[in-house]
Amino acid sequence: MRISFSIPLKPISGKHKFAMRLAVAFKAKGIRVTSKKPHINLVFLKGVRKGSKNIFRLDGVWMNSEMGYRKKNKKLRRLIEECDGLIYQNDFCKQASDAFLGKFQHHAVISNGAPLDKGGNIYKHTRPYLLTFCRWRPHKRLKDTVKGFLRSGLSDRYDLLVLGEDPDYVKSHPAVIYKGKVLAELPSYIRGCEFVIHLAYIDWCPNSVVEALVCGKNVLHASTGGTKYVVRKNGIRIQDKPWDFSPNKLYKPPPLNKEELSKAYRSMLALPSPQVDYLDIGVVADQYINYFKQLLDGAIG
């Protein structure tokens, strides 16, 4: 089987990094990754090819009422309709797609994944620390993350390390440390932390959460969006205001319960190590390959 990717296999963004990992896993299983006469073309955002079976990998839909979601979703639906199949990252992604784009008959639900961490360098910090990291935007809830940490009382013994560019909330406190954008060193920071916090409102399938879990760290997270499908039982879920799949102001997320969040911070320290074989990129690659084979064998369509 020959497979092509519609985006460059370079670490430009989270989706590009996932595509790189998936390509490596395909090659390890004897699948040829090539742009020359591919049987399957895996489409990320754009790049439908003639002469191939095109499968669209859906990151999410546009639902921010302040960002022209209707026009963007029409374009997205047209692109999906040009393809022969569709892959959702989790059940939440499918539910949102059904609501905003309509239902598509030929699809599969396959999570993101990454290689399970085999150990390596560990970031050395002066005190035990908790970790939060992403590209910061208002719905990622950095302010809730920092304030929840300080209210929990853990700052007497732990620091909170904040990684990522453009933090939209900066708190001057000796236990809250902003490290900026971190790339190659990220796994060492994750290996050294006690747990990871990701309180984003309506996230799809956050790569930062996948990164944390495959490095053996539990995740404190909010109940909306696709994050809970990635974390499963490997963390604590904070109850969020339910989303009814109608357009909303994404960058003005509802508040989280302060007491519940503070208690959860303390409870995270007692959790057992996560069990995340389902996120192994080899397991994920097998699911992709099985879907490709169904499509090529005519079992779909």
Can you put this structure into words, describing what you see?
There is one protein chain. With 301 residues, the protein is an alpha/beta fold. The chain folds into two domains: 132 residues, Rossmann fold (3-Layer(aba) Sandwich); 150 residues, Glycogen Phosphorylase B (Rossmann fold). The chain has nine helices and twelve strands. Strands 2-1-3-4-5-6 form a six-stranded parallel sheet. A three-stranded parallel sheet has the order 7-8-9, with helices on both faces. Strands 10-11-12 form a three-stranded parallel sheet, with helices on both faces. Strand 1, helix 1 and strand 2 form a beta-alpha-beta unit. Helix 4 crosses helix 8. The longest helix is centred in the C-terminal third of the chain and has 17 residues. The model has no long low-confidence stretch (mean pLDDT 95).
Give the helix level as a range of percent.
25-40%
CATH topology of the largest domain: Rossmann fold
Proportion of strand residues: 15-25%
CATH-assigned homologous superfamily of the largest domain: Glycogen Phosphorylase B
What is the chain-wise order of helices and strands?
EHEEEHEHEEHEEHEHEHEHH
Domains (count): 2
Radius of gyration: 20 Å
Q: Which regions are unreliable across 5 or more consecutive residues at pLDDT < 50?
A: none
Q: Measure the end-to-end span.
A: 19 Å
Strand count, sense and barrel status of the largest sheet are:
6 strands, parallel
Number of helices: 9
Strand order of the largest sheet: 2-1-3-4-5-6
The pLDDT mean sits at 95
Structural class: alpha/beta
Question: Which CATH architecture of the largest domain would you pick?
Answer: 3-Layer(aba) Sandwich
Tell me how many strands there are: 12
| CATH class placement of the largest domain | Alpha Beta
CA-based shape? globular
